[in-house]
Write a structure and sequence with these properties.
elongated; 3 domains; mainly alpha; about 220 residues
Length: about 220
């Protein structure tokens, strides 16, 4: 399997790289083999125990093992992986070299990571672009990369996600007066990253659809 045949697929990429690197890792000693580590579990179980590798271990082999461990479970941003290598004491020059190599063969791809993160968080948590941008920034994704990925978010899908959140929340607000319900719903959408204009419009329409007093929202908007 060549790198081109699995580019963008982290799981296939890790498997391919592991097969290519197995011989080099075996030369480092038992500490870098897939079956070793303090717990004795194979790769994909407990994180690599770099202390078991010993002081004579090749730093590149250590870094490679750490990166493969991190990428086996899920895709990660370059920033996340760099922090993990730094925390394990991998020299900066070695970390940069290995990160560049993993990026070159497609195992690290911040653009793909950003799109994947947005899709997953939008569908699972109903987050809007503002909240997603904050999360991507914490993941170390460059602002330009994040903007390009966020530009792909369909405004109609974002609005529908907001409506779904409001409908679910409304079920728990049946005994709450309309003023309180409105404030809670708008506040919930704000925490999810929705702007005030969209939040107020969605809550007004969903309250009306549920037979609740949609005039309350107009009064609240006038007070702001």
């Amino acid at each position: 399997m060549t790198s081109e045949s699995w580019r963008g697929d982290v799981h296939q990429g890790v498997a391919a790289w592991t097969r290519q690197a197995r011989g080099a890792q075996a030369e480092v000693g038992d500490g870098t083999r897939a079956s070793t580590g303090r717990s004795g579990r194979r790769r994909g179980g407990a994180p690599v125990d770099t202390e078991a590798l010993g002081p004579d271990a090749d730093p590149e082999s250590v870094a490679r093992t750490i990166l493969l461990d991190q990428l086996t479970g899920r895709a990660r941003s370059r920033h996340e992986l760099a922090e993990k290598l730094a925390g394990k004491g991998v020299p900066d020059d070695v970390a940069v070299r290995m990160l560049d190599r993993f990026e070159e063969i497609g195992l690290i791809d911040d653009e793909a990571f950003a799109r994947m993160w947005i899709s997953g968080r939008q569908s699972a948590k109903g987050l809007a672009r503002r909240a997603l941008a904050q999360e991507l920034r914490r993941k170390g994704i460059a602002d330009e990369v994040a903007r390009d990925a966020l530009d792909e978010v369909d405004p109609a899908e974002e609005e529908e996600a907001a409506r779904a959140l409001v409908r679910r929340k409304l079920r728990s607000l049946s005994r709450v007066d309309d003023v309180t319900a409105t404030r809670r719903l708008v506040g919930m959408l704000a925490r999810k990253g929705y702007g005030p204009g969209l939040a107020h419009a969605v809550v007004r329409e969903e309250l009306a659809g549920a037979g609740r007093d949609d005039e309350v929202l107009g009064d609240l908007a006038g007070d702001e």
